[in-house]
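Riboflavin synthase
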Amino acid sequence: MFTGLIEEVGTIHNLQKGKNSMILTITCSKVIKDAGIGDSISINGVCLTVTELADHRFSVDVMPETMKSTTLHELTKGSKVNLERAMAAGGRFGGHFVSGHVDGTGIIQSMKKEENAIYIYIQAPDELMKYFMMKGSVAVDGTSLTIFDVKNNAFMISLIPQTAEDTIIASKSPGSKVNIECDMIAKYVQNLMQPQQSGIDAAYLKENGFM
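Predicted structure tokens:
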């Protein structure tokens, strides 16, 4: 489990690509301090397992399904990536519940500077649009963000200067792809409201004090 609060930006030191998989080696300083083999680290929003450790570097395996469903296959040597360690049980919780399981990829439509903010519209797959709502949460490349607008097949996020400085999102441009993880609670509610699966609908949730 993650919070979506990026701890540092790392650099791809090396990639070993197979036909449909790869091994990533990432240079960093903070997230590796207390890391061990088998620990989970979010890389651009994708939960991956540490398989090797060295001075200021760690390696992870990326399996075919992850290659297919995320933007990790676009990384090259020198690419910058958002990094976050799995949340400690006794730590403070500052973002929103992020699992590190990417729901799909989006495409940046536009980026506009407005005072101290950067407004970014992201085109998302049709099947994900039901999870986006004004003031709802979304993780973009692993970064916990608030949704400020939803229209057609896109949603808008806004970066404050601190987020722009501490993550890779502001360095992207229109046409760039990003990993999207929808709000976990929204997904559970949507699943519970499918009558063919559970018999629970909006009326049931309201009757039992959930709405």
